[in-house]
Structures are given as structure tokens and as C-alpha cells.
Description:
Oligomer: single chain
Amino acid sequence: MFWTIKKFAIQFLLIFFILSPIFSLPSRKELKEIKVLPRSEIFFTQMENCYVLEIPDVEPGKVQMDLPELPLGTRFISSKKEEFIAADGKRGTQISLWFTFTESAQTRLSPLMTRINGRTYFFEFEPTYVYENPNLISPVIDIVFDEQKNIVTDKKTGQKSLTVKKGEKISFTAQIRYAAQIYDFKWILPKDSIFKETKRFDFAFGNRKITEFTAESQKLASFEWQILKEGEYSLPEVFAETLSYNGAKKRIYTPKDTIIIVKSNENQLPGTSSLKDSEIFESAFQKTGSQDISEKNSERSKEEYAKLAEKETRSILQKLFGKKFAIFAGGTVLSVPEEKITGQNFAGGQKVSITEQAGDWSFIECKEFSGWTKNDNIFEIK
């Protein structure tokens, strides 16, 4: 009897040791290193996004899970548990979990509680950034300053401000996010300023189309800006005709979240130069062989433009609110009302709005350009 029991025990132990590798669980250290991973590199709002948990050497029937408490704006859609075979031939359990998110933000869900053979384990979710759904989001222009040491952000309103000295150069680059393509890219000359485009990048020419979503910004153009009068200024108006990822076309403009505060040259800031206005003009408007300050000949005579202006009329509301308009007869448009500086020549025929007048000068604006011009170059619409 004793030998029979001993023989049975030996046989049981042999069977146990032979079969134990088949049913052995990963060690606690191995399980601790397993994470719940996002199936795709990018998650989007208002779409189903999938996480995957793979547990090797464990059959699906021995795994149960409990969903974690979800943060506000996150909704569980469904789950799936199935067997998988790894590249090394090992079998295991794969759990797929689908969620939707309403907010664009960095997201990290609470650990997933899982029971394996009656023992409880917690698996961490890999942190994931959720982006706005490309089908719902519009392109955005960002302004990136080359030097940001003087930029201050109001913690309550988010308003940014940059303080500079009169005539100090401000260098910045316009960039765009969430645009599949650019059809047109322009900027309007700001008043009381010396403003020039120093470089235009490939994406701004509209020759390249992005077919897959990317959160990276695309550079459009770099600029240099010198403001010649004290006061507070908005960023220069830069705008682009864009194609969104959903196929919609839209014109977008410079953001309004930054103001430029211009102070006099007295008590100058460290590291800035103090130039007289005349020196600023001389340094910024050096004549080159390609520049021509003579006005281009208008396609029509000024008498014809005057007749066009006589045929136009302002609406009652435009008269009520003091809105002024004119027919531009062609000529030089300048950044400041000064004859001694070099401007840019434009052909006539455009209907322009008059936003400011000073002596013999008027500041005009239209879709193609803006700036100061002599009153002789415009015919006001009554």
C-alpha cells in the first residue's frame, strides 16, 4: 500500500513538472512591464480610438477585466478578448478596448484592473495625445518670434504682449497648422512701420499637398518689422487661402492674441540700439538696382478713374458710420506718409477704403495691398 501511494505521488509530480511550463504564468516582473498601448500613433476627438493589451502565456478563458473610472469627456465604446500568437510562436490573450474623446489634450487613463487565474493585476495605459478631429478642425496661423525674452503672457486672459523700442527690429516667422494645402498667401503693409518679407518657404507657394494628418507646423514666411511711432499695435495682417483636411476651403488670418507695445528710445532696453528716425529710414530704404521709385503709368487716365468714382455711391449705413471709399488711380503706396522713402507701385482700378487721412496723404486698404498714398492718386466716392 505504501509503495502504491509513493508510486502515484512520483507519477503526479512527473506529470506536473512536464506540463507546468505550458500553464506557467509570466512572472510578476514581466507582467509589471506590460502596458496597454494605443493601436495607432495618433488619436482624434469624436472618433473611436483603440488600445491593446497583450498578455503572453495566458489563455483568454483565464482573464477577466474591470474598466477603470474614466475621466470627463472619455466614453467607453466596446471591448474584445481573443487569443493571439506572438512572433516567437507563443500564445496569449489580446484585449482590445475602444474609447471616444471629446477634448483635445494629453490623456492617460487609470490602470486597467485584470484578474488572471483569480489573482489581480493592474496594467498601466500608455499616455496618449488626443488631437482635434481633422474633419472638424480649421487651419491656424501661428506667429513665432525669433527672440521671445520680452514676451509677457497675462495668466487670466492669455493675452501676450511684446515691448520694444521705436525703430527696433522685430523678426518673426508665420507658420500654419492643420492645413493640407495653401492656395494663396499674402500680407498687408502695417501703418507707421517698415515691414518686409525676408524669406518665403516652399509650403506657402502652394506646390505641396499634405495627404496624411500631421500636428507639425509648416513655415510660410519670415518677416522683419520696425514700428516708427509709440503706441500699441496688433500683429501685421497675414492671411492665407487654405485647404482643410476635410476638403473645405477657408481664408485664415493672423491670430489676435499678441499686442506690440512700442516705447520711445529714451531709457532704452539693454541690447537695443537707439536710432533717430532719419537713420531708420536711411537704413531700411536703401535703393537697389531692382527698385524703381517712379510711379507706373496707369492703364487708364486719371479722368477715367474720376468718372468711375462719380458712378459709385456709398450706402446709407456707410455714410452713417463715416466709412470712406475711393477709386485708386495707380501709383506709389508707402508704409509711412513720407515722400523720401521707397514704396511699392500698384496699378489703378481698385476700389479702396480710406481708413485715415493726414494732410496730403490717405491710408488706403484693399484685398491686394494697403498703405499711404498721395491724395492725387485717389478719387473719393461720395
